[in-house]
């Protein structure tokens, strides 16, 4: 009897699953969403995503269904857009419709729609307008952002000299230097490289980004309603962000106590002044929660992406010594050794400009982009994308589009040089995304990359006893962030 009862139970279970799947599949196909693999109840297309290889898996699905397709993250449809032409049509030609910020379950419990990076609607418009203006005009007659970057580049050079050519993993020192630039803008001061609190903050940053791009972090993005209740390393992301937020809160309180409205020192001061000016405006988005979250957004974005790009870049120059020698020659010809570089030099240095662009293209640090969402029902290439549907415009598919780059899987500065050796632009160069949600700190990052790379190569030759292969250079196409391999190099004075 027990065997018969179990057999009956198993039969009922199978029939129930088939009915659920059939109903789900029918409902899914009634929509006019772009095509895609059939989802399963509850888990969606989880089985189509290889463990730890979300980006590669999405690209493989795209090879079957075309440049616009739908996958399900759990019960939630996500429209994926790949290739330069399709991404351009979405983010530029229909930029307003695709201008919403989509969900990032791994961090949304903290940000919850607040702050300049993860907000939408009027809140986002007010915060972005203010942040762009503040970053652009920051200093009000005091030191410019370029001066801050040059100062930090000099600090980095002095720190590197102390290693006396010994092999070193550059990850930590590059992260410290890049983070100090955004710290000087947001908090009004840089930190000493040996500052214990600063080192702990950066350690948490690094671990958090590793967790977000790990298999656990990718599962968190796909099936958050399940992963929120499953123990694992991904559960550390929330506590890490909370600790950094506590640090930000303390800095804001210190600024409030020492504020001089006529002489703002940093982004926090400017935001506090704006809060005071609009405290009687019921529609104002300038209040404490948006201040804390916006500072956290700038701190995160201003630390990790540019430093990761630099780490990729130095690894590439170790492999391609011939490119490094050409850069040394251009630096000596344009700048010499009697002064440091400045941004005016960039127009006279087409090869350096091309190499830095190619480093950004090839390293492809944010391959999936930050998720977008459509702000209203949107017609796109004959399909209907309902309001609120998340959209992933894959930057990796644009930066490696064979119709736009002659040899997209190889590092080649010629992608940004014309026949005469002059720098040439390419519309498919979108490391900062494009359209209305272009990275807020794009101009800052461009300045950092030029000034740091040029200053490092003006002072040092990069060497390593290890011979790196082409596969060592390839970005690890995993999840949210592409990280380079760990490596060591020696900074040899020139």
Which descriptors would you attach to this protein?
Cytochrome p450; oxidoreductase activity, acting on paired donors, with incorporation or reduction of molecular oxygen, reduced flavin or flavoprotein as one donor, and incorporation of one atom of oxygen; five-stranded mixed beta sheet; globular; 494 residues; heme; two-stranded antiparallel sheet; alpha+beta; monooxygenase; 18 helices; 9 strands; heme binding
Summarize the structure.
This protein has 494 residues and is α+β, with helices and mostly antiparallel strands. It contains 18 helices and 9 strands. The chain has one domain (54-60, 86-386, 402-493): Cytochrome p450 (Orthogonal Bundle), CATH 1.10.630.
At CATH level 2, the architecture is Orthogonal Bundle
- Give helix and strand order, one letter per element, not per position: HHEEHEHHHHHHHHHHHHEEEEHHEHE
> Major β-sheet, in short?
5 strands, mixed
Rg value: 24 Å
Determine the CATH topology: Cytochrome p450
Helix content: 40-55%
What would CATH call the class?
A: Mainly Alpha
What is the number of domains? Answer: 1
The CATH superfamily is identified as Cytochrome P450
List the uncertain runs. none
Q: What structural category arises from helix and sheet content?
A: alpha+beta
End-to-end span in angstroms? 86 Å
Provide a count of the helices: 18
Major beta sheet, strand line-up: 1-2-7-4-3
Inertia-based shape: globular
Write up this protein.
- The protein is α+β, with helices and mostly antiparallel strands.
- It has one domain: Cytochrome P450 (Cytochrome p450, Orthogonal Bundle).
- Helices cover 52% and strands 7% of the residues.
- The chain has 18 helices and nine strands.
- The strands form three sheets. It has a five-stranded mixed sheet, sandwiched between helices. Strands 5-6 form a two-stranded antiparallel ribbon. The chain has a two-stranded antiparallel sheet with strand order 8-9.
- α7 (171-186) packs antiparallel against α13 (288-319).
- It starts with a helix and ends with a strand.
- The model has no long low-confidence stretch (mean pLDDT 90).
